[in-house]
Amino acid sequence: MIELKPFAKLGGADHGWLKAKHHFSFASYHDPDNISHGALRVWNDDEIAPNSGFPAHPHANMEIITYVREGAITHQDSLGNKGRTEAGDVQVMSAGSGIRHSEYNLEPSKTKIFQIWIEPTTKGGHPTWGSKPFPKSDRSGKLVTIASGIDGDKDALPIRADARVLATTLKAGESAEYDSDKARHLYLVPAAGSVEVNGVRVNARDGAAIRDETKLKITALEDAELVLVDAA
Predict the structure, then answer these.
(1) Would you tell me how many other CB atoms lie within 10 Å of the CB of residue 105?
(2) Residue 141 dihedral angles phi and psi, to the nearest 5°
(3) Whole-angstrom distance between the N-terminal and C-terminal Cα of the chain?
(4) Low-confidence residues in the chain, pLDDT < 70
């Protein structure tokens, strides 16, 4: 079963410095029938204006993955971590028992990110942050795991959740496949380009909520870049 969520119908907000679209209920956008997809709680499509961003604010008990689509984001937190994550790179913050952080676009042009929140398997624990490059050339034509809490996903950034986040770039006509369990909750968003997922067309920045599928066949209808979450 694939439920398509067209980008044009997503909830959202325009704060001037921030243009946000919400795949699930978030902030002032609330839909009681669209709270989460399994352990996947938030998927925000954010465009951040130059020299602006999110000032320091707290989080607890959430795995927060930032996938940078364009530009760069500069992170700072209450643990003393500082880092700049640019397009093609990924950062992960395990909020654990509590952390304060800021995220700013200090670049001369706008930054575009996917902000993904996944509920952890257990609450508490020491908060952590990490960032890692995942060059698009290394994930061309195949799904690469970029963040995971599943045993065996050794090269991915660690998260404390029964979930993995994958990404790929596909040339027009190329396909990638992914095996899953029917009980899992899959969610796929093309960052760019259109794809066909098991016969369903998914355009750039649309969401596809997937259940009861044991195999995905993702075919690029044009050059495409996409992110897939597999969660309990």
Answers:
(1) 25
(2) 80, 0
(3) 16
(4) none
What ranges make up the beta strands (E) of 49-95? 52-59, 63-70, 72-77, 82-86, 89-94
**Domain count within the chain:** 1
Extract the tokens encoding 33: 């029938």
d(CA 170, CA 158): 25
C-beta neighbour count of 203 within 10 angstroms: 16
Q: Contact 48/88 with Cβ under 8 angstroms?
A: no
Decide: 67 and 114 in contact? Cβ < 8 Å: yes
Taking alpha carbons only, the member of 196, 219, 220 closest to residue 208 is 196
Supply the pLDDT for residue 46: 98
- CATH at residue 169: 2.60.120.10
- Give 45: exposed, middle or buried? Use CB within 10 Å, 0-12, 13-18, 19+: buried
pTM (two decimals): 0.96
Angular region, 125: left φ>0, alpha ψ -120 to 50, beta rest? left
Domain coverage including residue 36: 2-231
